[in-house]
Amino acid sequence: MARTHSEAMAADERVSFASGEYANAEERYKGANLYSQCKYKDPDGGYIVYPDNEFQAVGETVAGRVDTSQSQTLINENESAVATTIVDDWFASSTYKRPLRNEGTELIGVGVSITDDGRVYASAAICS
């Protein structure tokens, strides 16, 4: 599911929860028959959390070349540098940090797609 979403973002040339045939993360989880399996009880609030956009982390970076499109120069020379950049961005984000570290999170599926011009699109699907 995560790889398919990353491939759809690469085809669309944009980072978004709405890519490919699905309008949002909830639809993707339902399409993959994971919606019911990936809900969990929030350890802080005690309520049931269902897959929605908070269950999906998305990101884009550049592999193997210099990117100056965002007022800074980035270079990721290998797969390890690309992975580090993306994961660091996810954990620096208030949107993604909480679900990635939530005690209810047991599985994280990561999908990556690299375009011919070196753009890397990645998504992480979170499940309990």
TL;DR?
The chain has 128 residues and is an alpha+beta fold. The protein is built from 4 helices and 7 strands; from the N terminus they run H-H-E-E-E-E-E-H-H-E-E.
Task: Give the helices and strands, then pairings.
Blueprint: H1 2-12, H2 25-31, E1 40-41, E2 48-49, E3 56-62, E4 66-67, E5 74-75, H3 79-92, H4 94-101, E6 107-114, E7 119-127
Antiparallel strand pairs: 1-2, 3-7, 4-5, 6-7
Describe the protein:
It is a single chain. The protein is of the alpha+beta class and about 130 residues long. The protein has one domain. Helix content is about 30%, strand content about 25%. The chain has four helices and seven strands, in the order ααβββββααββ. It has helices spanning about 1-10, 25-30, 80-90, 95-100; strands spanning about 40, 50, 55-60, 65, 75, 105-115, 120-125. It has a three-stranded antiparallel sheet. It has a two-stranded antiparallel ribbon with strand order 1-2. The longest helix is centred in the C-terminal third of the chain and has 14 residues, at about 80-90. The radius of gyration is 15 Å and the shape is globular. The model has no long low-confidence stretch (mean pLDDT about 75).
